[in-house]
Fold each of these.
Amino acid sequence: MNPGCKKYIPFTPVSLPDRTWPDKKIEKAPVWCSVDLRDGNQALVTPMNLQEKLEYFKLLVELGFKEIEVGFPSASETEYEILRALIDGHYIPDDVTIQVLVQAREHLIRKTFEAVRGAKNVIIHFYNSTSTLQRKVVFKKDMQGIIDIAVAGAKLVRELTEADAGSGTNYRYEYSPESFSGTEMDFAVDICHQVMETLGATKENPVILNLPNTVEMCTPNTYADQIEYFIRHLPNREAAIISVHPHNDRGTGVACTELSLLAGAERVEGTLFGNGERTGNLDIVTVALNMFTQGVDPELDFSHIDHVRDIYERCTKMHVPERWPYAGKLAFTAFSGSHQDAINKGHEYMRESKSPYWEIPYLPIDPADVGREYEPVIRINSQSGKGGAAFIMDHNFGYHLPKLMHPEFGAVVQVECDRTGRELQPDEVFELFKREFLNISEPYALSRAKFYEEAVAGSSANITHFSGVLSVRGSFVPLESRGNGPIDAFFNALGQAGIEGYSFITYSEHAISMGSDSQAVAYIQLRAPGGRRIFGVGTEHNINFASVKGILSAINRFENGKL
Ligand code: KIV
Ligand code: ZN
């Protein structure tokens, strides 16, 4: 028992026993609002400079955001100037609304209106903190005192908008009871309703009520209950757009967002990859792609996720962790053997069944849908199994190793991983393959070979003749034989070189393109003296010679103690 935990006051959830959200589904995209350039930027060690903010803004527009919070222009001269540069430089498309944040304080609101002059579409987003804790320790005010701040702010916002009528700017309003989730719900409803009334909200001209989970305080279901409770109790509900603004203190920002959408939220504020104060804001990329994998169009375009991540990392100087959903460098990589095997089988199944659906175990999304089709999905380390090495040989080098051969090559790769103690790159896997199967010419190598067919009168079957020279530990042995096919003919010749005790088990072949060159690959499995089974591989332009080389590869491997 650790008594240290007793200093924390457990969260008191709102009571909503007849909640309906658990039975709902997310069926359409919410309105997305990026707060990267405000909440995200404000949390950076080095906030973005003008160039970086402009580049980031363009990215957000390209991704499809129609509402973008661009800053807190009354907070600093830099923020003010960046906003002016966006407006005066005509960077804001007509269908994009910029949003500016301001505390509900008179001089700051006035400065904010000055800062947005000339913009086409603007959301004035004002806020004050309403939570029990902030009222007690920061503002030292009762509920009425907090309502007075919000209502005075709303009054001024409305007055300044009306005074600017005819300027060509379309104003909309957003009010945030900051620290909403730490606020008594009836009080949150009351203050928001009074703000709506003061602003003159109507169904045609609704106010955005943004309900922040400023600091995550409890499990995501409690936030969803608060959202459903709020929506049910808000008078004139149609005159409001319900927005959520989750943070990630407990690591459940994505879950809070998804459950709050079930609970009726219509709009989501967040950032790319969850940048933002402390543990960050909600990661919009994850929520949007989660929707995508459920067949719901998120109406944001993340089809080039690496490009998005590169710009994000360059501008913010933050790093997207390797295991971040969808965007992390390792998000689509499987090291474990059983996972690699299942992915491999999933690919095969899709190829063979021509299924129109994505049905690959361990990959919740097709990497190609986020522009990552070329990366190695399967990587090889000591945890990887037989399927992984075969996958690399197939996908990277075009060798379709027969199933029976997977364990044999897998074991070779495993030994090398254990020896090096690190991951093997695909080229290293190929080098191992060549060393083990293709470049093995001791003790036996063919120095000359010829096949020819002889028709047999009265029979449809031909006789195949083989003649060649075998190099055996440096000396040359001439061979001459015949059989009912090239493999049989060559096998029959082996005895002349003193090679005894091998029998043929399986054979497969395919063509392989290496650059402009096309070759045949033959995989031969033999039973060696003593009964052990062993594979050999041969490549040549001519399939007969490839087969002969495959036989010698298997024999050489056995003679060299490879099994
Ligand atoms: O997290 C928060 O509560 C905020 C508000 C200013 C909306 O960022
Ligand atoms: Zn925030």
Amino acid sequence: MFKVHAVPPDRLPALLQAMPKAELHIHIEGSLEPELIFKLAQRNGVQLPYANEAAMRAAYAFTDLQSFLDLYYAGASVLLHEQDFYDMAWAYFEKAAADHVVRAELFFDPQTHTARGVPMAAVIEGLSRACRDAQAQLNISADLILCFLRHLPEADALLTLEAALPWRAHFIGVGLDSSEVGNPPENFSRVFAKARALGLHVVAHAGEEGPPAYIWSALKELKVERIDHGVQAIHDAELMAYLAQQQTPLTVCPLSNLKLCVFDQLRDHNLGQMLEAGLCVTINSDDPAYFGGYLNDNYLQTFAALHLGAQQAYKLAANSIEASFATLAQKRLWMHELKLCFQGFSEQD
Ligand code: ADE
Ligand code: ZN
């Protein structure tokens, strides 16, 4: 067991910044900043319903998940060409490198784009090229996870998976996102079974706004390896015990939960309670361009609001690395670097 020494509160932000970490829950379309949306709109001749970037940002006052998704899909309408997808992902990777992200697993929503006539090739090849450059130029290991939109029928998801198969080598897994309540995981059992048969990793959003029953269903029906969000598990003691026993990773997104009114205040967030209960919790940014912060902003604000310390920092970073779909050799290397980082901070005391 690695011994984590206490770090003085004024040194904690530097430690959170410096520690190597993985980001496992980032919708790449949710990293589109208004400046890039306007640039791409101009480049592609797309009309936007806002006069400028500030007017667009001013509209980012959400009351729930759906109020956000409406703007998120509108923002993605400027993406037409392979280079657009590359530019979007590259902008994210530059931010991730500054946050010392060593591993990023990017969600993307092909149906949002193919429904507008954008070829699957443009979407996947643009994102995939950015992932390769992230490794070569920024030393970030990056992979793609294809998400199905749960507000659409499973038949659409099956067609989407089929359409993406020529690029099977360019993505490592599938996920399930979009409007949760009323669209339970079990509606997608067949497409997830097919994805698993293809050797793809499987994850799903569950328990963001939806009930614990959706988390059970994602685990039992879809057989997911990780739960995205999962914060509603707190209302089901049996589920909490199961998640702790199985060590199923939860990709929690505190600033997202705050902006979408899942919690009224960051200090009300249950991340600390879930850590205490022994769950495998990780911190992630979800849609950083819309929720006011990238990965380190999520760490910094959550640690300040919940009064967390070095012990929790180590656990969260270690969980993120271990819960990733990277190779064992990569995980070993990053765990070694994580330990060196913490040792460096304790020696400076
Ligand atoms: N798509 C993008 N962000 C999402 C979120 N937080 N929940 C569900 N679907 C999403
Ligand atoms: Zn999400």
